[in-house]
Amino acid sequence: MKLLIFSLLALGILYLVLLIPDGDGPEPVRAGAKPFVWNQDKIWEKLEVRFLSAGMDSPSRIDSEIASGFTGLEVLISRIESERLLPADPVFDSLETAFFSLAPLIAIRPDQLNRYLSDYTRIRKSVKNQSRTWDLASPAPRITLYRIFYGIRSAVEEVLLQSDSLSFAPRFEVEPCPSVCPEGLVGGVPVRSGDLLVSRGGFEVSALISRGNDFPGVFSHVALVHVDPETKKVSLIEAHIEKGVAVTDADGYMRDKKLRFIVLRLRPDLPEMIRNPLLPHEAAGHALADAGNRHIPYDFRMNFSDSAALFCSEVGSYAYRKTGIHLWKAISSISSQGIVNWLNSFGVENFVTQMPSDLEYDPQLVLVTEWRDPETLRQDHVYNAVMDVLIEKADSGEEISYNRWLLPPVRVFKGYCWVMNQFGRVERIPEGMSATRALKNEWFVSRFRHLKEKTEEKVTGFRQKNGYFPPMWKLIALAREADSDRE
């Protein structure tokens, strides 16, 4: 009996000890910027109204308006292609408005989609060429690039989302970019050794990474491609929260729930590339060898200046830095206090860093190909809307919570996971993540899934009532309604 009492007392004391909360971590490295805000609600609503009214117009009137729109767009694109412009030039605002204004009409007349996509590629190429002489450390160039690149992609996808079948081809060629590096295939998409694949995962934390940025994006992950010149085997070097830096093949990469990805390639006219056209392949070779020679844990702190541990963006930037190429001409910033608080709950300490979505704005890189999964494009937009509403809640003071009474058993389980990690096993609580952060992650996932489920119910009701898929601004409104119902 005494032994039993002593054992229960010891367990009770151990439980109480394991209840002691974690101490405060280092003070986060904060950004001093301001998050970008569109403030275009009236324009979005006007576009939606035009979409609805266009469905009742005569085909000849729609065709005439589309022809006029393309003519005006041609004038603007031609100017950007032929003149050297400053980022604050009004032509970029006019270009944005003209491209957006065509979207509701193209959604009604999908036979005009190919021309719309052709202008999309011309705009991307011409604006990227302009940005080569801009100082991306300044706010104005960065805002112009974001408004154009993010904006016109959103317009194209709003058009695609109105298709009942969503039968468009996943692969879309954007801009040719010659390369002498070894070639392979990922998901049917041609890639070259040294290419950077910037993707969006289908997990809850992927939404937070892609949207939790001063310039919210649609990408959450970066992988570096290596192609063996003899066997043509494709290897993807990437950092995973669960296991740190790892190497997978093309099939494994695609199985890891990709909603979309883009292929970015180093420009061949860079001085470093002229001296050594195989530089990207060499960078990928460095990364592949490094991953094979040492265990590289995941960098939860997101400190891109320390290569002892690497997060996904850092895999590519670290490999290229060894060859003299410094990626991310515009370093990312996370200034929203709510996002800082939430990400800090998961161990992030650096909020001036390298975010996946921002890599496409680097003028050293060419966007060669876009790949979207037609089956999950709508899901991707719902995820974004849900995350945007959760970020609003974070900014209003909602904190990441967790069940403190579960902390003792989860800490014991974390100890087991740590032991298994030493033998190379991937366990439920990743290396580098504490028990407290694991519980906070569970809270976040549960919060996200619940709001997503309620939002999807709202979306279904909207489609049944109105006959079309809600555009992004309406999705956000529906997510807000779903969250209000919860309260």
Give the low-pLDDT segments. Answer: none
Number of helices: 16
CATH homologous superfamily identity of the largest domain: endopeptidase domain like (from Nostoc punctiforme)
In round numbers, the mean pLDDT is 91
User: How widely separated are the two ends?
Assistant: 50 Å
Query: Cα-atom Rg, whole angstroms?
Result: 24 Å
Strand order of the largest sheet: 1-11-8-4-5-6-7
Number of domains: 3
Largest sheet: 7 strands, antiparallel
Q: What class, by secondary structure content? A: alpha+beta
In the CATH hierarchy, what is the class of the largest domain?
Alpha Beta
Keywords:
about 50% helix; 16 helices; endopeptidase fold (from Nostoc punctiforme); 3 domains; two-stranded antiparallel sheet; about 475 residues; alpha+beta
Structure, explained:
The chain is of the alpha+beta class and about 475 residues long. Helix content is about 50%, strand content about 10%. It has helices at about 1-20, 40-55, 60-80, 90-110, 115-130, 140-160, 205-210, 250-255, 270-275, 280-295, 310-320, 335-345, 375-395, 405-420, 435-465, 470-485, and strands spanning about 170-175, 185, 190, 195-200, 220-225, 235-240, 245-250, 260-265, 330-335, 350-355, 365-370. Strands 1-11-8-4-5-6-7 form a seven-stranded antiparallel sheet. The chain has a two-stranded antiparallel ribbon with strand order 2-3. Strands 9-10 form a two-stranded antiparallel ribbon. The longest helix has about 30 residues, at about 435-465.
